[in-house]
Amino acid sequence: MDLACAKEEYLDYLRVERASSVNTVEAYGRDLTRYIDYLAGSGVTEPSEVERSLVEAYVGALCDLGLAAASVERAVSAVKGFHRFMYREQISPECPTADLLPPAKPSRLPDVISRKDAARLLDQPFPNTAAGLRDHAMLEVLYGCGLRVSELVGLDVRDALLDEELLRVFGKGSKERVVPVLGAAARVLGEYLEQGRDELIGKKPNAAVFLNVRGGRISRQSAHAIVERYGRMAGIEGLHPHTLRHSFATHLLEGGADLRVVQELLGHADISTTQLYTHLDRSHIRRVYLSAHPRARAAD
Asked: Which three-class secondary structure state does DSSP give residue 168?
């Protein structure tokens, strides 16, 4: 079996046995196509011909392409998973990626907006139309519940348990979690479901919460455009849906939320991912110290 055929078997394994998301399988497919093309350029087409030095050269070539560190890390993860699969399935006699580490990436704090900017974004006037109600609800849910954009557009009506003040969310790998939807997010989402969604839905039934003007499920690209447009109208340039998720986590932690609770709300498998959000400003750290430490005001 050559590498191209082995790739298709590996992607099927991800889909069926690992229940990986469509986006993950597509991304890994692109990464592995690039990898196999690189190997073919060196005359390698069979799994047994891949040597560790060639894999390391490929990782170096990825870095030279100027890809984002996260993209390089994912590409290396795809290659490692591919070779582990081939070794386990006895397609390849050895695993040349054992203990292979991705290149070190510079630590980068998540982009966030201030509480003041969040209020300006969400309190601005929205059009008194079905689409306006939808847009307002999307923004409120992104910031109020900390959803990924894929989770937002994937919501079905049955997942909005507003009487229980909960949303059922399907995250990476179709992992289900339940998050609270309260306050403004619950109110605006309820208004959209009661007053706006029926105007958007077409003749064909659609289970999606957020619909486009043709009555279909809204796309991630449209959600990105909506967030960016309302951000620009509020004076926030380049606003991204993930920025609202970052801001959700940061503002919770600044308000005193436990890191483990935030991890659960975000659906992070590893708490080290959640710890990226602990970049609190010095004034907040000082306030917490003054309120919590028994000797902080000893001189008062």
From this structure: strand
* 276 pLDDT higher than 90: no
* The predicted structure's pLDDT at residue 286: 64
Burial of 88 (0-12, 13-18, 19+ CB in 10 A): exposed
Q: Of these residues, 242, 284, 287, 297, which one is catalytic?
A: 242
The stretch 209-237 carries a mean pLDDT of 95
User: What is the enclosing helix (H) or strand (E) of 176?
Assistant: strand 176-180
Q: Is 242 a catalytic residue?
A: yes
Residue range 119-239 forms a domain whose CATH class is mainly alpha
Structure tokens, 64: 């030279």
Known catalytic membership, residue 172: yes
170: part of which helix (H) or strand (E)?
strand 166-170
Considering the candidates 148, 197, 246, 251, report the single residue annotated as catalytic: 148
CATH architecture of residue range(s) 3-88: Orthogonal Bundle (1.10)
Give 136's contacts (C-beta < 8 A, 6+ positions apart): 122, 126, 188, 192
- Is 50 exceeded by the pLDDT of residue 300? no
pLDDT digits (tens, 9 = 90+) for 14-60: 999 999 999 999 999 999 999 999 999 889 999 999 999 899 888 88
176-180, strands of its sheet edge to edge: 160-161, 166-170, 176-180
Q: Is 245 labeled as catalytic in the residue annotation?
A: yes
In the chain, list all ranges with CATH 1.10.443.10: 119-239
Which one from 120, 168, 172, 217 is the annotated catalytic residue?
Answer: 172
Whether 74 is catalytic: no
pLDDT at 110: 66
Q: Where in the chain is the domain with CATH 1.10.150.130?
A: 3-88
